[in-house]
Amino acid sequence: MLGICRGRRKFLAASLSLLCIPAVTWIYLFSGSFEDGKPVSLSPLESQAHSPRYTASSQRERESLEVRMREVEEENRALRRQLSLAQGRAPAHRRGNHSKTYSMEEGTGDSENLRAGIVAGNSSECGQQPVVEKCETIHVAIVCAGYNASRDVVTLVKSVLFHRRNPLHFHLIADSIAEQILATLFQTWMVPAVRVDFYNADELKSEVSWIPNKHYSGIYGLMKLVLTKTLPANLERVIVLDTDITFATDIAELWAVFHKFKGQQVLGLVENQSDWYLGNLWKNHRPWPALGRGYNTGVILLLLDKLRKMKWEQMWRLTAERELMGMLSTSLADQDIFNAVIKQNPFLVYQLPCFWNVQLSDHTRSEQCYRDVSDLKVIHWNSPKKLRVKNKHVEFFRNLYLTFLEYDGNLLRRELFGCPSEADVNSENLQKQLSELDEDDLCYEFRRERFTVHRTHLYFLHYEYEPAADSTDVTLVAQLSMDRLQMLEAICKHWEGPISLALYLSDAEAQQFLRYAQGSEVLMSRHNVGYHIVYKEGQFYPVNLLRNVAMKHISTPYMFLSDIDFLPMYGLYEYLRKSVIQLDLANTKKAMIVPAFETLRYRLSFPKSKAELLSMLDMGTLFTFRYHVWTKGHAPTNFAKWRTATTPYRVEWEADFEPYVVVKRDCPEYDRRFVGFGWNKVAHIMELDVQEHEFIVLPNAYMIHMPHAPSFDITKFRSNKQYRICLKTLKEEFQQDMSRRYGFAALKYLTAENNS
């Protein structure tokens, strides 16, 4: 493309030269033919005829003019030759330019020239910018640490994926928390042509910990300074983004700007749009040194290979050490140091047009970066107020951000046709398993759900908990959907120990949950509750997948496998920890049963003791769980014995037994083939039994099921005959699998099922 533009410029210059030079020469010579307002003859004969005074000076003047004319004629001949060569080369460049590329409209680096171009609507071919290969990988680096930043990154990534047409390689400099969250997210997201690598941010702390920093980003806000050292040595260029960025265009347009760098330009930055570095925000305001308004580092283009050759590490360190002698600390983290380096070395910067970083902090000049929605490229929420920032068009920006915040991430799993993807073992295994299913099978959707990979965001909110040192700690495990959110506060009031919850939500519902939780004093006061979002996909409620997700992410040696509709008795957490010691769970295979009861009243005076509960049973305020509709589920608990029991007692497994139990964290997972309603807990208890767990009923423990409207899945079970047929088929297949896995020990389950 550059070759075409240069060729056409030469063609135009040559054409103008051919037209203009002879004319100018003619005017010059003609004007020289007048002396004192009278014509001066150029011919010696004519001169002699008109003037008797033919002197040596006029002869020399005519000779010099004749020499100049010959020189002009020679220049014209050279220009014609150059023109013919340019015409011969231009078609070849055009042909080669259309191979596997697309062009990007881009600015020049000069915001005024760019704005003039937008207004003029210049769309000539020479005004188009360097191309990005169709399948060229775009590299993006992001520093991310903690729970909140991990949520922000997801919105940024969604906006990039929505617009992108190229393979992407994300380089995430993350702490252990962010790496656990984002590694699981990307692994379960399974977006084609996206690669993610992690770099341990905690190992980089020593590189920047010597720099005092007042910015709210903390030590992680300085880590962009060490990217040349952190990222792979063979990585030549990278786009660096803050987590509070939203893209409104294809990131390949920004990647194409690298082709505009010239000379020693190694940093692509947008000018800072606030007056911070001008030092006039308040009295005695003393910012770090900067060139003019300075530059914002929310979006950076880094030419890593050149920076390494320039010894960037040494450059920024020396600058920081010198400035810190007077400034004492940074106020804007890495941005202060970048600007101090640029102040000394302005040749390092290629200034990006300001629409590549529209900065939405209070009192900025961001409105000068756009005249229309189509001008917007990148929005930067760089105020601590975030969405509450003051801006003339903040409502529009907020809606754009919320669009990606609540956008269904599953829709971004689209292929980049024509671009080969790296082999993904998990994806290949999944496709193989799905291909083995019979799509004509009436139970195909049930079977398919077992292999569905649900996008999962672990620890959606801040989590902080260290298990008790005595190795008796117990985590309550449960799962829920949006219609059970009201149970969370009540459970937290009844259970003071750690909780692990898997929530089945859409992207929009996840944001509703976030607002609900942040508005609850009860939930915000608890940091030992792990909320794990499993995003909706498919037509069934994946109840056992949710349980497995919640079970997998506990940090205590034991777990209480409950359901969200149950309220545990007050003090159950401490009672279970004592029972762990009493029954020696650490050295035996036991499953402690917490007897389950239910009420049909939405308002219940919760019993504070076993005696009070027995009184409510006798009065008909409470019932043993599912006494009216599914007696077999909890009958083996032997409630008659429990009424008078003072010590734990053992019960035997029976068909369809599904108690709520406390077990070690290494117990088997729930079987994923059971979705929606039916047999999801029964199968798990059966597997505990075949693994020779003893079922021990606790005499002074209880939990009460609170009433709620029937779930959608139980409604389908009751109304859809095919649903019930498929559930029966899955039960039979599960029992056959048990026989194959456990042999003779599993035969009793087949017999028990036939007799029931």
UniProtKB/TrEMBL annotation:
GO biological process, one term: protein O-linked glycosylation via mannose
Location relative to the cell: Golgi apparatus membrane
UniProt membrane topology term: Single-pass type II membrane protein
Keywords carried by this UniProt record: Glycoprotein, Glycosyltransferase, Golgi apparatus, Membrane, Multifunctional enzyme, Signal-anchor, Transferase, Transmembrane, Transmembrane helix
Any one cellular-component term (Gene Ontology): Golgi membrane
Region (Disordered): 43-62, 83-109
Chief location category: Golgi
Pathway: Protein modification; protein glycosylation
Positions with biased composition (Polar residues): 44-58
Catalysis: reaction(s): 3-O-{beta-D-GlcA-(1->[3)-alpha-D-Xyl-(1->3)-beta-D-GlcA-(1->](n)-4)-beta-D-Xyl-(1->4)-Rib-ol-P-Rib-ol-P-3-beta-D-GalNAc-(1->3)-beta-D-GlcNAc-(1->4)-O-6-P-alpha-D-Man}-L-Thr-[protein] + UDP-alpha-D-xylose = 3-O-{(1->[3)-alpha-D-Xyl-(1->3)-beta-D-GlcA-(1->](n+1)-4)-beta-D-Xyl-(1->4)-Rib-ol-P-Rib-ol-P-3-beta-D-GalNAc-(1->3)-beta-D-GlcNAc-(1->4)-O-6-P-alpha-D-Man}-L-Thr-[protein] + UDP + H(+); 3-O-{(1->[3)-alpha-D-Xyl-(1->3)-beta-D-GlcA-(1->](n)-4)-beta-D-Xyl-(1->4)-Rib-ol-P-Rib-ol-P-3-beta-D-GalNAc-(1->3)-beta-D-GlcNAc-(1->4)-O-6-P-alpha-D-Man}-L-Thr-[protein] + UDP-alpha-D-glucuronate = 3-O-{beta-D-GlcA-(1->[3)-alpha-D-Xyl-(1->3)-beta-D-GlcA-(1->](n)-4)-beta-D-Xyl-(1->4)-Rib-ol-P-Rib-ol-P-3-beta-D-GalNAc-(1->3)-beta-D-GlcNAc-(1->4)-O-6-P-alpha-D-Man}-L-Thr-[protein] + UDP + H(+); 3-O-[beta-D-GlcA-(1->3)-beta-D-Xyl-(1->4)-Rib-ol-P-Rib-ol-P-3-beta-D-GalNAc-(1->3)-beta-D-GlcNAc-(1->4)-(O-6-P-alpha-D-Man)]-Thr-[protein] + UDP-alpha-D-xylose = 3-O-[alpha-D-Xyl-(1->3)-beta-D-GlcA-(1->4)-beta-D-Xyl-(1->4)-Rib-ol-P-Rib-ol-P-3-beta-D-GalNAc-(1->3)-beta-D-GlcNAc-(1->4)-(O-6-P-alpha-D-Man)]-Thr-[protein] + UDP + H(+)
Similarity comment: family membership: In the N-terminal section; belongs to the glycosyltransferase 8 family. In the C-terminal section; belongs to the glycosyltransferase 49 family.
Name by which UniProt lists this protein: Glycosyltransferase-like protein LARGE1
Top-level taxonomy: Eukaryota, Metazoa, Chordata, Craniata, Vertebrata
